[in-house]
Amino acid sequence: MKDILSRFCEYGMEYKDHEGYTHDLSSLLPAVQLAYNTSQHSTTGKSPSLEEKGWNPLLPVDHLKKNLLTIHPMAKDFHDTWKNRCDTSSKCISESNRYFKQRWDKSHMEPDVTATHQG
């Protein structure tokens, strides 16, 4: 999580939402946590939530039907903003993982496994 947060801080402490309004990055932290805990990890092939709890959490906005006329505009806006935050968080997590994998691959040397035991 520390690595993910440091990637956010590289871009400053503000971001613009899909409508162009500026927000503090700390408002993204719940979305970062949800995106991280529900994304599939390469080592286990499962998400941390699935490993720990046996299920991935869903929010009420996940069940919001897209084209109903009775959806309150604020509920739709919240859904769109939350989805945008989760997508942004997932993208940052992927970029962070890719960066640290490249960094590891540059500095990591495979051990020499040839048999040297004489015997």
Give the low-pLDDT segments.
Answer: none
- Calculate the terminal CA-CA distance, rounded to whole Å: 49 Å
Return the structural class.
Answer: mainly alpha
Strand order of the largest sheet: 1-2
Order of helices and strands: HEEHHH
Mean pLDDT: 75
Oligomer: single chain
Which short descriptors sum up this protein?
nucleic acid binding, Integrase catalytic domain-containing protein, RNaseH_sf, 5% strand, 119 residues, two-stranded antiparallel ribbon, mainly alpha, 4 helices
Provide structural commentary.
This is Integrase catalytic domain-containing protein. GO terms for molecular function: nucleic acid binding. The protein is mostly helical and 119 residues long. The chain has a domain at 14-93. The protein has four helices and two strands. Strand 1 and strand 2 (22-24) form a beta hairpin. Helix 2 (29-38) crosses helix 4 (73-107).
How do the helices and strands line up, and which of them pair or pack?
Layout: H1 2-10, E1 14-16, E2 22-24, H2 29-38, H3 48-53, H4 73-107
Antiparallel strand pairs: 1-2
Helix pairs in contact: 2-4
Brief account:
This protein has 119 residues and is mainly alpha-helical. It is 50% helix and 5% strand.
